[in-house]
Amino acid sequence: MIKAVFFDFYNTLVKFWPPLEQIQQSACQEFGLNISEEGVKHGYAIADVYFNRENENRPLALRSDEDRLKFFTSYEQMILDNAGLSVSPDLAQRIWEMAASVPKEFMLFDDTVAALAHLHNSGFQVGIISNLRRDMLEICRRLGIGQYVDFVVDSAEIGSEKPGAPIFLAALERATVAPQEAVHVGDQHRSDVLGARGVGIHPVLIDRGGFHPDINDCIRIASLSDLAPLLAAAPHSLQPAKHQRITQLQDQVEE
User: Fold this and answer.
1) What is the CATH number of domain 4-13+112-254?
2) Which of 67, 135, 155, 221 has a CA-to-CA distance to 59 between 20 and 30 Å?
């Protein structure tokens, strides 16, 4: 029986406003470069895998300003290259510095409040597991979701980044549940899926942009609205092979 649901924060519950795609487009235009919004979204989907792997190896918050700038120059090059635009390291750095200078705020996805409210009202323990080194409880309160979140575990508090086991084990301890009684939802395969699975938690990958159709070793959803029916059919629905079979049978019935 599932008793707790954990969430990654950025790109799972929230996004940035203004949208990063628009900021990138505007920054590129300042240098006479044009890039599509869909291209930038795809670029971020690829580059964010690199971002999370690097942050896992050596947290960006603990690096020097010079090292962070070198990293973000490579990160920007990767975004643009996968969006179909090849630029030099020097130009990538200038574009990144311009994009990074734009003030941004966290903004909830349209499906976040309804999903969290449903889980909270249904009696699930709801937690957030994040590599962000911020005052996450204050951010949740400011966004209006604090009343639906029972606890937050972040890497600054635990001293370990996802996909390391300590941060997931801390969440299980806070929720006072066994690993098989918990689900973790996140947008990164390595950080969220493999990290959760490594301690026995059921992983669910949220792929809002449909950029990871090749990932089939876990349950993949397109929206948080897909979570309630998934939990209603747990635990069988949380096993990829059985979930696929259930979906196929449902499709046959609808036909």
Assistant:
1) 3.40.50.1000
2) 221
